[in-house]
């Protein structure tokens, strides 16, 4: 280790003299010449920080694009947030950043600069070329500028890495007081990228920086897994969408789920949070006409479903005259409720409804409350989806309200409005086919 490393010191500097990079340029030779002219030769264990723009230029990632938005569309996989013309997107690399990193600055008019095709591969190639050119083993980071959720301002982060542990894992160690560290993983590559940006500057024409003093603490002989390990997977990303986009996604991605994972219980607190969303629905006359019966015990669910099945069979046999085989086939349609580990029975309470002497207005008044109940049920289903829970609204309680009220001990004025099966989906939802808005709208 160097003397600086023994004293826990780092040296960070940016050499001058790197010219405007053109497609096909040998970056290793350009950097080697600039470092030599600077008078401080690269050493084993140094970390070289290279702005992604010059990597992209050398790799020919300059494209004609009179429409920058089209170039962004080609580079993105998901819209994360949009405010006006500003788009935060997820790129095909997995990065979440403004405009997919498509840059219309520092490039000729009518062209845009894309991110490197594979920043980790770019870092590995540059590291190998520098070893060949200078005979030194340096770590290489390819960096770019990011904004950050919850924090103002920009900072450089690592897009690609070679010869460095991008994540410094402290789990299993103890702090200065002897407390075990269970979750501490430092984004060392991003910290180094930010340090280098302090000396490179945005307009100073110094696209490369060197960090010295880490020794072998973070640098590695092997290229390593690169900066890809810094990309948070979607399952653990708690902030993957902006507010508006999350609201749309919750509505559009909600699915009717009929198969549930029997090994995963439902958290009642999550259901109550969904109910809290449900009761924000609009309602007539400043009323609150919704009630939600939560069937958390297996006994309550089984008792209700058995009573409903008896009533259903009686209707199918006595009123419809169906054969026993057809009756059982129809009753089995309700098995989705039996497979669910949790049931919710939404109920409509029409207290506060206006009384009218004629059937026309009385029916309209009733329908107002039913529409409000539908809005609340939709809020519930979307709220459950936001909690990661699957659901299926089933209409069966509408057909045997007296039975449901009796079995659950509900007041006479509560009208069960179907039942909602709730659980963790047993598999991924199938994509929903596209639906044309024009097919469902009339413009006057």
TrEMBL record:
- GO terms assigned for molecular function: coenzyme F420-0:L-glutamate ligase activity; GTP binding; metal ion binding; oxidoreductase activity
What keyword terms does UniProt attach to this protein? GTP-binding, Ligase, Magnesium, Manganese, Metal-binding, Multifunctional enzyme, Nucleotide-binding, Oxidoreductase, Potassium
Q: Start and end of every Nitroreductase domain?
A: 252-424
User: Key word Metal-binding present in the record?
Assistant: yes
Instruction: Supply the InterPro entries for this chain.
Output: F420-0_g-glutamyl_ligase, F420-0_gamma-glut_ligase-dom, F420_FbiB_C, Nitroreductase, Nitroreductase-like
Q: Tell me where in this chain the Coenzyme F420:L-glutamate ligase-like domain is found.
A: 18-213
Metal-binding recorded as keyword? yes
> What is the protein name stated in its UniProt record?
Coenzyme F420-0:L-glutamate ligase
Q: Give the species this sequence originates from.
A: Mangrovactinospora gilvigrisea
